[in-house]
């Protein structure tokens, strides 16, 4: 899954700083997201949208790592245990970190 974010509409306003003795500017944006376990390993992309560059020419992507508590499941081989016979349970968990 790829999430493409428009920082101009979702975050705080851009911060534009002029560089003394240089005709260029540094522009930075900030975005705050509420994430869940399902967002782990989602690719976040930051893209420059400016007339001076082709669409998608200046882009950086990073995988989002979300820490979350383990989910645990217990699955029996059979639904009912019989006295004197073997009964097996399989316990599995998934979380980050594992």
UniProtKB/TrEMBL annotation:
The keyword Zinc-finger does not apply. It comes from the Eukaryota. Keywords: Signal. Residues 1-18 form the signal peptide. Transmembrane segments: none annotated. Residues 70-98 form the Ig-like domain. InterPro entries: Ig-like_dom (IPR007110), Ig-like_fold (IPR013783). The keyword Signal applies. PROSITE patterns: IG_LIKE. PANTHER family: CELL ADHESION MOLECULE 3, IG-LIKE DOMAIN-CONTAINING PROTEIN. This is Ig-like domain-containing protein. It comes from Ameca splendens.
